[in-house]
Amino acid sequence: MIWNPNKECMSRDEMSALQGKRLHKIVEYVYHNVPFYRHKLQEMDLTPDDIQTIEDIVKLPFTTKKDLRDNYPFGLQAAPQSEIIRIHASSGTTGNPTIVGYTRKDIGVWSECMARCLTAYGVGHEDIFSVSYGYGLFTGGLGAHNGVEMVGASVVPASTGNTEKHAKLIRDLGITGIACTPSYALYLAETMEKIGITKDQIKLKVGAFGAEPWTENMRTEIQDRLGLKGFNLYGLSEIMGPSVSYECQEQFGSHINEDHFYPEIINPVTLEPLPMGQPGELVFTTLTKEGMPVLRYRTRDLCSLIPGQCNCGRTSVRMSPINGRSDDMLIIRGINVFPSQVESVVLSMKEFAPRYMLIVDRVNNLDTLMVQVELRQEYFTTTAFDTPAAIDELEKRLANKLRSVLSIGAKVQLKAPNTIERSQGKSAHVIDKRKL
Amino acid sequence: MTINQLSIFMENRSGTLIKALELMKKSKIQIIASTIADTAEYGIYRIICSEPSRAYKELKEAGVAVALSDVFALELDDEPGRAADAVRIFSDAGLSITYMYSFLLNGKGILVFRTNDNEHAREVIILNNLKFISENDLSQWK
Amino acid sequence: MSYSNYFNPELETMPVDQLHELQLKRLKQTVRHCMNAPFYQKKFQERGITPDDIQTLEDVRKLPFTSKEDLRENYPFGLSCVPLKECVRLHSSSGTTGNPTVVLHTQKDLDEWANAVARCLWMVGSRPEDVFQNSAGYGMFTAGLGFQYGAEKIGMLTVPAAAGNTTRQIKFIKDFGTTVLHAIPSYASRIYDVMKEEGVDPQRDTQLRVLCIGAEPHSEEQRKRIEYQLGVKAYNSYGISEMMGPGVAFECPEQNGLHIWEDYFIVEIIDPVTLEPVPDGQLGELVITTINREAMPLLRYRTRDLTRFLPGECPCGRHHRRIDRLQGRSDDMIILKGVNIFPIQIEKILLKFKELSTDYFIVIETKDGNDIMTIEVEINQMFTDDYARLQSLEKEIKRQLKDEILITPKVRLVPKGTLATSDEKKAVRVKDLRKLF
Predict the structure, then answer these.
(1) Are A126 and C176 within 8 A, CB to CB?
(2) Relative to the CA of A150, which of A80, A353, B95, B123 has its CA 20 to 30 Å away?
(3) Does the C9-331 domain belong in CATH 3.40.1280.10?
(4) Of C128, C204, C187, which Cα lies nearest the Cα of C339?
(5) How far is B58 from chain A (nearest CA, A)?
(6) Which pLDDT value is given to residue C412?
(7) C chain contacts of residue A161, beta-carbon cutoff 8 Å
(8) Which residues of B touch C388 (CB under 8 A)?
(9) Which residue, A305, A146, A149, A153, is CA-closest to A240?
(10) Cα distance from B63 to chain A (closest Cα, Å)?
(11) Which of A74, A85, A128 shows the shortest C-beta gap to C158?
(12) Domain with CATH 3.40.50.12780 in chain C
């Protein structure tokens, strides 16, 4: 089944024409409504009239996460505040999160894109579908939720946490589909086995897995243990949220909703566009977004576009699985984490030396984050640290601050002075023990 | 009324305790009494020793997370019930003991402790005429 | 821009006789619709009635009561009156002990729910220009998605901040210019405390104007204090997850009782022992019949909440009757931080630990404006001095309790024999020291 054959199966010429028309419109729109983009275009001596076809996109400036940070909170917003009905946020590189506003139309487009994904997975209105991404500011929960409502399935807003109860609901309600991170799916399988729920007691047939990279091995294991078919679901909040691209039944790459999100692959060093099929950094331009459109947003995700047409009948271009990042971002339990966020917290507390280490691991299929920080020696000259209670209090204070900035809980380990090794390089502050 | 105590922050991993002890051995510091408060993640090693100021300096220079503080040290007769009598006085005064340990010195029991209100504790000791020792009483080791 | 004072002007200000006409029409429809569920068919047979026996509004008293136990016993879909494929949403109550309750919604149910919440928010002055921040938990907890859909229906900029992370909540209140905030009362106090710690002056540094508080019992004094601290008007919200969630009743700008939407519900207040209606103005248990729900209508649902009707007309122009703020429960349920907790849930978790005796004691008290639950448990055998092991035992108890009751209580380990009572009768397990009523 195809949700919107008109768009998903358009001929290449029609699609390019539509993209060109929309690109011109969106450039004109941001030129008049976002001073940030107007200045950038003026600096490059460009006017919206210079952008007529989709090929002209290479003339446009890039947008980076730093641009979003520098214009926090609403600097890149194009629609007036009264038109914005929803806010989502994702991790920023330091203390400020990245804010994205949506108009009512944006939410409609998002829901439709998500409905396209779900239909490709085989989800229809008879299904009972559990959304087990986190709800709230994170786009995963509400984004998937709106799409499930659009296809008319019964949505169970399970969110995250309380896995045992969730496992029972899957059995008792006869839930047929689930959206979650692939590692949560494995954790769920494990929980079911622990409480004695067997594969033949459940009716799961579709899994929409995303928000973190995963491998074919993980897919095989999840499918085997939960008895479902697992599909990739890709998205990022700066562009929209889940539904930017999705796998079809062929499971050979993820179809991009390219009538709304135009993809390019560039060389992350030279910033030159790369020919079709070559791996590089994925860049998206939103073609229809009203709330916060972005031009050539650098996702930092490394992948390639797949040439040729898919057997499923969709003509939309496909992207390969993500196989890395061009920055030091970590994805932990589906949440983006930057080491620089931890640094901003450590630097804000005078009890700690500016030395820290993030240790990421996967225990029983659940990602864990431990942050080691070094106590400053000067703080032992006082008697304040003489009791476990005082140290526990400091530990708690740090954990709360980290939680507030990272949006996920981290285990904190206080280290004695000069025990964390100094080292150089990109991953100097990270030990990732997960095997992906 | 008070004596010096070293408090060393120790992560729960092998080698941290021996490192501190070796340092004290090298500096010829004698340990008179000690106790470890242990939690799941780390411990606090509290020490009464000869030359606490020098020990503090040496440990600190070696990069050990150490604090030097004053703790109360009451002298009690070495017989059953004396600790209860002493603590009763603080309890009746509304004070809580945060931590406590003891050792023997010249046939007397020495009760080392800290309270939730040290100023108040000082008054209680004076008003009740309790016997205490001070840093000088530990001079036999110096 | 000038707006009407009412979100649904016609329905909100409808004269009482017309309102009653509408209620009767919808009641008759609902009762007939209920016959799609074997559960109600059986209940009707037992009482010897048919839908045709319902001819006047007073006939609602002929109908059988529905209770939380009915929902549990007929878990998961026993009370559903439409085929499952017409349902688009499911909410479920917390807890792994026993069966949870399941509430189903069709698309129309969701639209009506959003409308009811929008009506409430509009009533207290929310308009499309406002920035609405929701600090309720999202997911299965109904106050998250319930307020989200209502606020979006009005067209407010809606921030799904979700529960917790107070520092970030405050950052958003400041950075986004939040004007309307939804928070349970104890959390509103917490936000104020953290603002103070961080040097944020709510009057100077924020644009907060309206606070919607609910899901947790609180006193008038508590409301006044929060209003003064945050410089806002605080309005009481009442919701019941078995109906839908928030949007059942809400205070108007008069702040004198909560209008309960009588085009959605038929409301009775009964004596919980005799089950007879109490005279108007007298305290009793709130009983609600839904009259415009499709997926899972409820007939005479016993909320267990104690309240009274407030007499007289409200100057705000709405003819929907008002109920007083909640005065307690007719069962042993505890409402803490917006979460419903039954002592039995706690007991079942504690019994899993062989290190603990069967005695326990729950204390709920207010400290610095925060409601805190402390559970004292007895350790069966002493663990010598293994502090680390006691610490991890405490942690594990807390973790399992949190999974069950969704909030993390304080846990105090006490030696065996401390809590035992010589009393033959069932010991009092709960002490609620909050001043609520």
Answers:
(1) no
(2) A80
(3) no
(4) C187
(5) 13
(6) 87
(7) 403
(8) 38-40
(9) A146
(10) 6
(11) A85
(12) 9-331
Residue A349 Cα, gap to closest chain B Cα (Å): 18
Is residue A436 scored above 70 in pLDDT? Answer: no
Residues of B in contact with A382 (CB under 8 A): 67
Query: Is C384's pLDDT higher than 50?
Result: no
C336-432: CATH topology: GMP Synthetase; Chain A, domain 3 (3.30.300)
Six-digit token string for C66: 């529905």
pLDDT value at A41 more than 60: yes
DSSP A146-202: HHHHHHTPEEE---SS-HHHHHHHHHHTT--EEEE-HHHHHHHHHHHHHHT--GGG-
The reply to whether residue B38 touches residue C388, judged by beta carbons under 8 angstroms, is yes
Q: How far is A366 from chain B (nearest CA, A)?
A: 21
Compute the mean pLDDT over every residue in chain C, rounded to the nearest whole number. Answer: 90
Q: Give every strand in the sheet of A305-306, ordered side by side.
A: A305-306, A318-319, A254-256, A241-247, A229-236, A206-210, A177-180, A128-131, A154-156, C87-92, C102-106
Instruction: State how far the Cα of C427 lies from the Cα of A395, in Å rounded to an integer.
Output: 38
Chain C residue with minimum CA distance to A165: C96
Name every residue in C having a CB less than 8 A away from some CB of B.
387-388, 391-392
SS3 assignment, position B66: strand
Instruction: Tell if the CB–CB gap between A154 and C129 is shorter than 8 Å.
Output: no
Phi, psi of C301 (to 5 degrees): -75, 125
Pairing of strands A98-103, C334-336: unpaired
- Residues with Cβ within 8 Å of residue A193, at least 6 apart in sequence: A225
Nearest chain B alpha carbon to C395: B40
Per-residue pLDDT tens for C343-371? 888 888 888 888 888 788 899 998 877 78
pTM (2 d.p.)? 0.82
Do C379 and C402 form a contact (C-beta atoms < 8 A)? Answer: no
pLDDT above 90 (res C178): yes
DSSP C305: E
Judging by beta carbons within 10 Å of its beta carbon (0-12, 13-18, 19+), is residue B110 exposed, middle or buried? buried
Q: How confident is the model at residue C431 (pLDDT cuts 50, 70, 90)?
A: confident
Q: What would the pLDDT profile of A266-312 be if each residue is shown by its tens digit?
A: 999 999 999 999 999 999 999 999 999 999 999 999 999 999 999 99
A 414-433 → B contacts, CB under 8 A: 414-419
Chains that touch A (3 or more CB pairs under 8 A): B, C
A377 at interface of B, judged by CB pairs closer than 8 A? yes
Nearest to A329 by CA among A236, A207, A206: A236
Instruction: Specify the pLDDT at position C49.
Output: 96
Q: Which domains does chain B have, with CATH numbers?
A: 2-69 (3.30.2130.10), 71-138 (3.30.2130.10)
Q: CA dihedral in degrees (B28, B29, B35, B40; nearest 10)?
A: -60
Indicate which of B10, B12, B13, B38 best probes the interface with C, i.e. most C CBs within 10 Å of its own CB. B38
Q: CA torsion sign, C275 to C281 to C285 to C289? A: positive
Question: Higher-confidence residue: A389 or A102?
Answer: A102
Asked whether residue C385 carries a pLDDT value surpassing 60, the answer given is: no
Domain with CATH 3.30.300.30 in chain C: 336-432
CB–CB contact A149 C84 (8 Å): no
Mean pLDDT of A358-376: 91
Higher pLDDT, B41 or A257: A257
A-proximal residues of B, 65-124, CB under 8 Å: 65-70, 98-99, 114
Long-range contacts of C391-397 (CB under 8 A, 24+ apart): C391/B39, C391/B40, C392/B40, C393/C353, C393/C355, C396/C353, C397/C349, C397/C350, C397/C353, C397/C356
- pLDDT score recorded for residue A381: 65
Q: Closest Cα of chain C to A138: distance in Å?
A: 9
